[in-house]
Design a protein that fits this description.
Blueprint (H helix, E strand, L loop, with lengths): L1 H9 L28 E4 L2 E9 L9 E9 L9 E6 L7 H15 L4 E6 L16 H8 L8 H22 L8 H14 L5 E6 L1 H12 L4 E7 L4 H6 L1 H8 L3 H15 L13 H14 L2 E3 L6 E3 L1 H7 L1 H5 L4 H12 L4 H7 L5 H17 L9 H11 L4 H9 L25 E8 L5 H10 L3 E9 L9 H13 L8 E2 L12
Parallel strand pairs: 4-5, 4-6, 6-7, 7-10, 10-11, 11-12
Antiparallel strand pairs: 1-2, 2-3, 3-5, 8-9
Helix pairs in contact: 1-2, 5-6, 8-17, 10-13, 11-14, 16-17
């Protein structure tokens, strides 16, 4: 299952200036779809495109397009129904997710479900948010942009954020008020009806758990089964951009400390940062101090460059999510300590590419529609010290990279759902919380279990963002039992990963 997230981070290409978006202009008056016409688009894959209301409060008004995909059940003779999946983000492509990981997702339901997903409104092939009229304009705007770590750079970045928000408003102002999580939940319920399901079976990952909790509270009687892995705290998420930033990074340093502790325990044969008189934690402090003073050469990337503090922090975004990457990450960090940061710089650059910035902007647009910022943009450079205290590794990254634009965002979401979050579903909602998750801390799953009227928490005593990053046969069995037979694990169930970080038997 690890391949799914690999794809998600590498291919979240939200090219909002793509010509395909032109067909879904605000002038479009096509009627909402009442049926789905599927066509083959790969082995056991079918694709389609439907139209839904821009504003569900005015169903006969303007419409937008949604791109759909389904992976047909591998055991059609035992088919139960459709399993809807959302890979997170917000803004990751459900179409790409199923296209690349359909066979694995098929296994979640023991081959007995058609796995259905879609590109949520505002993203990818579903009427994407557009902030530039051409690729050249986007290239020019983002060229040389990086995560600011100094006061001077922060002021310059604030001006860029304000400019970005204005550009998004000019081009996509008609769309931005209608891309909230609640809007997508209404789309999901419409999809449920169109595929012929009386109730929904749903699996949400990361932000997909926010969509799931929103749906379950808006339509509790329409839930057959709902599995949420890597749980978002809906109260904190919906409070403000500042709350999302401060709360969302609170688990990062705990995971990073685990990385360093286990590295020290397994020794230099398994972790390149271990061994000698200095601990891995001491070596990391040295590396951070060094990049603050001067960038470290990265001669082996194309074009050659150097790793600064912002790039170093960005380079750790993916490895912390995937414990299988910990040995390689340790080797790359050691190489940087020895004077060659090429591999770390290569890891950071995709997130600073045009595709990376565009993906982030679309993710931001959805979050801003859900809950904006409470503080003016001029206050955000000062707020970064607060976020850095929440996480020395990712506080600044998430603050600037994801949610600072909300402080200058040109519109408010009109349709956001803000609670309550305590609805009861007939079948308990299955929450899967990984003990050391850098992006959705375990405490989130505990909180949601208490909030929801009927939920059970399965604890994955492992590492990484969402449980499949750290495979566990125990979790896999629980997932199948729940989705297929509606049998939830007993309260207090704890699953162990199949392998410890840095190899079998470590830790």
């Amino acid at each position: 299952m690890r391949a799914m997230l690999r794809w998600g981070l590498a291919a979240v290409l939200l090219l909002g200036f793509a010509p395909s978006a032109a067909a879904d202009s605000p002038q479009s008056q096509k009627s909402p779809s009442t049926t789905i016409v599927w066509h083959s688009c790969g082995d056991r894959l079918e694709c389609a495109r439907i139209r839904v209301p821009l504003d569900w409060d005015h169903p006969r008004g303007r419409t937008i397009g949604l791109a759909l995909i389904r992976h047909l059940a591998s055991r059609p003779e035992a088919r139960i129904g459709s399993l809807f999946v959302n890979p997170g983000g917000p803004g990751e492509s459900g179409v790409g997710f199923v296209r690349n990981a359909g066979d694995e997702l098929d296994g979640w339901g023991d081959g007995r479900f058609d796995v259905v997903s879609w590109d949520p409104r505002g993203t990818h092939a579903s009427t994407p948010v557009r902030c530039f009229r051409s690729q050249r304009a986007a290239d020019t705007f983002w060229k040389g942009a990086s995560i600011p770590t100094t006061k001077r750079a922060s002021k310059a970045y604030s001006r860029k954020v304000a400019d970005l928000a204005k550009r998004c408003g000019r081009i996509s102002g008609w769309l931005l008020p209608h891309i909230s999580t609640a809007d997508t939940a209404r789309d999901l319920d419409h999809l449920r009806q169109l595929v012929g399901e009386a109730t929904i079976t749903y699996a949400g990952l990361s932000y997909g758990t926010m969509l799931g909790q929103t749906y379950a509270n808006m339509y509790p009687r329409r839930v057959r089964a709902m599995m949420l892995d890597g749980v978002v705290d809906p109260v904190q998420y919906m409070r403000s951009a500042e709350s999302r930033t401060a709360h969302g990074v609170q688990g990062v340093d705990e995971v990073y400390d685990q990385f360093l502790t286990i590295c020290r325990q397994v020794g230099p044969q398994r972790c390149a940062l271990a061994g000698g008189k200095r601990t891995p934690a001491q070596r990391m402090r040295t590396l951070l101090q060094r990049v603050r003073q001067s960038p470290i050469p990265a001669p082996q990337v194309a074009p050659p460059g150097a790793l600064d503090e912002g790039d170093l922090l960005l380079s750790q975004f993916q490895p912390l999510r995937a414990p299988a990457d910990w040995p390689l990450n340790a080797s790359q960090l050691k190489a940087a300590l020895n004077g060659d940061a090429s591999d770390l710089e290569a890891g950071a650059r995709p997130l600073l590419s045009l595709e990376g910035w565009t993906a982030t902007t679309t993710s931001t647009a959805i979050s801003c529609a859900d809950a904006g910022a409470r503080r003016a943009l001029k206050d955000w450079p000062g707020l970064m010290q607060r976020y850095k205290r929440s996480s020395r590794m990712q506080g600044i990254v998430n603050g600037w990279w994801l949610w600072a634009p909300c402080a200058a965002w040109p519109v408010r979401g009109e349709d956001a759902y803000r609670g309550k979050w305590n609805a009861s579903t007939k079948t308990p909602v299955l929450l899967i919380g990984t003990r050391y998750d850098p992006n959705t801390p375990y405490r989130n799953a505990v909180r949601s279990q208490r909030l929801l009227g009927n939920a059970v928490l399965l604890t994955h005593n492992g590492y990484g963002h969402v449980s499949y990053q750290d495979p566990s046969a125990c979790v896999e069995r629980a997932r199948v039992d729940y989705l297929v037979d509606l049998v939830a694990p007993a309260p207090g169930t704890v699953c162990e990963p199949d392998q410890s970080p840095f190899g079998q038997g470590s830790g």
